[in-house]
Design goal:
There is one protein chain. The protein is mostly helical and about 475 residues long. It is built from 18 helices and no strands. It folds into 2 domains: about 375 residues, MFS general substrate transporter like domains (Growth Hormone, Chain: A), CATH 1.20.1250; about 55 residues. The radius of gyration is 21 Å and the shape is globular. The protein starts with 5 loop residues before the first helix and ends in a 17-residue tail after the last helix.
Amino acid sequence: MLNPLRWKILAILGIIQFMLVVDATVVNVALPHIQHDLGFSRAGLSWVVNGYVLMAGGFLLLGGRLADMFGRRRLFLAGVAIFGLASALCGAATSPAMLVASRFFQGLGEALAAPAALGLIAVLFTDHKERTKALGAWGGIAGIAGITGTIISGLLTNFASWRWIFYINLPVAILGLIVVPRLVAKSEVAENKKLDVAGALTATAGLVTLVYGLLQAITHSWGSQSVLLPVVAGLVLLAAMVFVERRSKDPLIPRSFLQNRTRLLGNFSGLALAATFFAFIYLLTLFEQQVLGYSSLKGGLSYVPFGLALGVGVGMSAGMIPKLGIKPLMVVGFMGSAVGMLLAALLHAPESYAAHILPCLLVFGFFNGLMLPAAQTAALHEVTGENSSLASAVQQATSQIGGALGLAVLVTIAARYAQHATGAANAVHGYATAFRVSAVILVVAGIVLATLLRNSKTMAPIDASVPNK
């Protein structure tokens, strides 16, 4: 039986999801002000961003499994409470150590709340048509929130204080804590499941260590110990996790989970999409502020058309999936996004926003929006109620890893290529090279999907006999 409150629940969960995703990017424009007020070193400042990404990406798998085992509502509320408290501590930070520690704490809150929230959606919407619409809206919220962080940060930093980019989370968190328990019924804890502690520890430690090593490549050479040691250690830990999972009677990730080709390719597409998306926003923001001299407010507002184009793409995609299936939308989305990246590679200084920056924003935004619902649908293909939060955690962890990989590789390419150019154009040459590499990544991903992905116009409904935790 369908929950009559499911759309109201989706609206509340969507607001929380918006808050969680925004906090991954909201600090970017405000970093110079944070550095000045708290006395960050140049190297230490990067941890304001990295701490959140590392903690969220590393603990998402554990959060998803905990939600499936101990109740999605319970884990969601715990995650939101942790996130709200951490946001208050971030806003009140009086030292670099306090802010960085609070950002780690925020990341833990997201790791618990985000997979539980998407898991709730997956079991609330058992009708495949409604589920496609719900996931389309969810993917659109995530995509729009990903670029809205720069706008919010620019506005608050200019007209109030950087501390308000964290304080604005408090009313949203309180809303979720009050409303969700009234709309979502509590369920009994599954007693036939045991937490795979060894698998959880090795998976989380491996992901955190690997992401840390990839992020270190932004400021260190690939052959340096700062990069190689954590990357190798992370891979060893993940290999240990695979060994532990194969021997476990109740593994963190069921053996059959990624044997579904559509689901596997959906997560692959999320990795490629996040890698290029995060790098695009980061590099274009630097281009606008460092090369064109945009203020933080002007730079933030420049992404408004991008958000609108992305929203249009999401709306069209959600409506076309039942008719065309996910494969053509994903392939066209990747190829169109590559065109947007190539347009960005043509940027130079001085530059006209309307004639040059706006076209790449519109093209890249629209085709990213076209992909998002289809990729989300693929990542949750034929997921059961028992594994819905885990599927969400895998998808979101893949995006976090992809974003970290994109920043580490593409930003490093931009910086190193710039060293071989001379004069004022050095940074522009570096950005252009990174954008071209991003276009290649997107084209390759599109070819892989066109070759291997089976088309699907619907998703198998979740087993209604599984309780909505």
